[in-house]
Automatic annotation (TrEMBL):
It is found in: Membrane. It is a multi-pass membrane protein. GO terms for molecular function: symporter activity. The keyword Membrane applies. It comes from Triplophysa rosa (Cave loach). The lineage of its organism: Eukaryota, Metazoa, Chordata, Craniata, Vertebrata. This is Solute carrier family 15 member 5.
Length: 575
């Protein structure tokens, strides 16, 4: 049964947190209950402010880089995608450092300071010094270009590291105690979890995008700076009481150790000592001359079966990053006026979020209806295949829309004080390609999380989700590499500074072709991930049985102190 995110796995309730009210209606220790409620509220606010800061930086990064810093379109797109990728990868690195080296409280405090420092640098870069500082000789005081670049990139790196520490320590998925949930409960949880994330981003893109683009102009990073102040206040209110303390021991280090030990044994040619083995990873076993137990090696072999899934998410994530890069530029050079009102460029991102907000409740309804044994819900692999197909179709429509966009006459349009020559085609004609990517996200992300969680032993589920996160971050960097590579190969024609003068549609058609091939490859291997059960060897079964016995012992010990509600829904667990 679901347990509160603040309950520790060693069986003891955290300091200041006591059990929920008894069924009889009596409430024990209300002061401690108030402290628990305060901690929950602070975590929710910290999560909100952190994502508010992240999306506030991302949503108009390209507009800022091209207009304020004078970057080319491909350079601005690469900066944005690399920042998104770094923000996805840093939670894995900083979470590992917190567990093995410096401690969670130290890393959290350091990352909070980095977050504050980074968001303080960005307003300095954006500040219009030329409008305020003119001396008696009418000389304008402003930052030199190289100084702007140093401050800008320093701020981005600091923010990415700060985001990683906050995400890894304050709100890890391990804190939700999903070990005892079945497939339907897990799918429901992941659907609602990503639904809340996208609801948050929709609010941010609606509010911040317009303020940054139309009101604040050059002060486009002032709101992220203000929001991180609120996040620091929330962290200070509860300090280390917000941190989740998992059990000791790093499964990530053990996993990498098995790989390195197996490679070492293969490279040193110890075949004559260990004999023939069925799998190269078996050389890491103690009975073959390695350093790891049979249980550890067998668990890692199960994890390796998910590597094709992780690898095929790279190109899909590169396709998703077109929303803040290629699609953003396409929208930016379209007509944003509607009834005399100039819509923010990032408002199209909201259109891609709407399918997620609509489909998540529908998928939850299907999940509820198909819980009977006579009805079989389509496998998560099927949802992933459909999502990849939607992503390929979206890139294809983007190429067709780009050809259609260039046929319209040019008009003048003012964005952040600069007059641009754009197509007179309405930006809302690009809606189908955004909707298709939104549908792809609604299908792929929860299904990948479900497969990664279910098809690995319980002690490696966190590692499996780490590898999935690494594939997401790697996909962002792959998207930046594709932009750079195709720009170089085409001499700037595939990613021109003026989309109306180049052939950006060829970039989208290339991406659509690669994504179609990626979809076919995953469809061919999807049968590997249809049955969501772990094929455990004898050693792994023994480990799994020991874990179950320890779980039951913990349940019996705290039978009178931890409330188990059979009617608690996954939506309530996420909240």
């Amino acid at each position: 049964p679901p347990v509160s995110a603040f309950d520790r796995r060693d069986g003891h309730l955290p300091q200041g947190v006591f059990a929920s009210p008894h069924p009889s209606g009596t409430v024990t220790m209300p002061r401690k209950e108030r402290k628990k409620l305060q901690a929950i509220v602070c975590v929710l606010f910290v999560e909100l402010f952190e994502r508010f800061t992240f999306f506030g930086i991302v949503c108009n990064m390209i507009l800022f880089c091209t207009i304020k810093l004078g970057y080319s379109n491909y350079q601005a797109a690469m900066v944005n995608t690399c920042f998104v990728g770094a923000s996805v990868l840093t939670p894995v690195l900083l979470g590992w450092l917190a567990e093995t080296c410096f401690g969670r409280t130290t890393v959290l405090g350091f990352c909070a300071l980095l977050h504050f420092f980074g968001t303080a640098m960005l307003p300095v870069v954006a500040f219009p010094f030329e409008d305020f500082y003119i001396n008696t000789h009418n000389i304008v005081h402003q930052l030199e270009p190289h100084e702007q670049h140093i401050l800008f990139y320093t701020g981005l790196v600091a923010v990415a590291l700060g985001i990683g520490g906050i995400r890894a320590i304050l709100c890890p998925l391990a804190a939700y105690h999903l070990q005892g949930c079945d497939r339907h409960q897990l799918l429901s949880f992941f659907n609602w979890f990503y639904w809340l994330v996208n609801l948050n981003s929709m609010v941010v893109f609606l509010g911040i995008a317009y303020i940054q683009q139309s009101v604040a102009k050059n002060l486009c990073f002032l709101i992220p700076f203000t929001s991180v102040l609120l996040a620091l206040i929330a962290i200070h209110m509860v300090r280390n009481k917000l941190t989740f303390h998992p059990k000791k021991g790093s499964s990530l280090l053990t996993t990498f150790g098995v790989f390195l030990n197996s490679l070492k044994m293969c490279c040193l040619h110890y075949r004559h000592l260990s004999g023939d083995v069925a799998n190269w990873l078996d050389r890491a076993k103690e009975n073959n001359g390695g350093c790891y137990s049979e249980t550890n090696v067998e668990n890692v072999k199960i994890l390796v079966k998910l590597f094709p899934l992780f690898g095929l998410q790279l190109l899909y994530r590169a396709c998703i990053t077109q929303i803040p890069s290629g699609y953003y530029l396409q929208t930016m050079h379209s007509n944003l006026k509607l009834n005399g009102f100039i819509w923010p460029v990032a408002v199209m991102k909201v259109i891609s979020i709407l399918p997620v907000l609509v489909l998540a409740p529908l998928l939850e309804l299907l999940n509820t209806c198909y819980q009977s044994p006579k009805k079989i819900l389509p496998s998560p692999a099927t949802f992933i295949t459909m999502g990849h197909a939607c992503a390929a179709l979206s890139a294809l429509l983007a190429g067709i829309s780009e050809i259609h966009r260039k046929d319209y006459p040019q008009v003048e349009q003012t964005l952040s004080g600069k007059v641009l020559q754009v197509s007179s085609m309405r930006c809302f004609q690009l809606t189908p390609q955004y909707i298709l990517l939104g549908v792809a996200e609604a299908f792929v992300t929860p299904a990948c999380s479900l497969i990664s969680f279910c098809l690995t032993p319980s002690n490696l589920r966190g590692v499996s989700l780490h590898f999935l996160t690494l594939s997401y971050g790697g996909g962002c960097f792959l998207g930046a590499f594709l932009i750079q590579f195709l720009y170089f190969v085409s001499g700037g024609n595939f990613y021109p500074n003026n989309p109306s003068a180049g052939n950006m549609e060829r970039f989208f058609f290339t991406l659509a072709t690669l994504m179609a091939i990626n979809t076919l490859v995953f469809w061919r291997i999807s049968q590997r991930y249809t049955d969501l059960s772990v094929e455990l060897s004898s050693g792994a079964r023994q480990s799994h049985l020991s874990e179950k016995l320890l779980q039951y012992k913990t349940y019996l010990r705290f039978y009178d102190t931890v409330e188990r509600s059979e009617t608690l829904t996954s939506m309530e667990t996420v909240l």
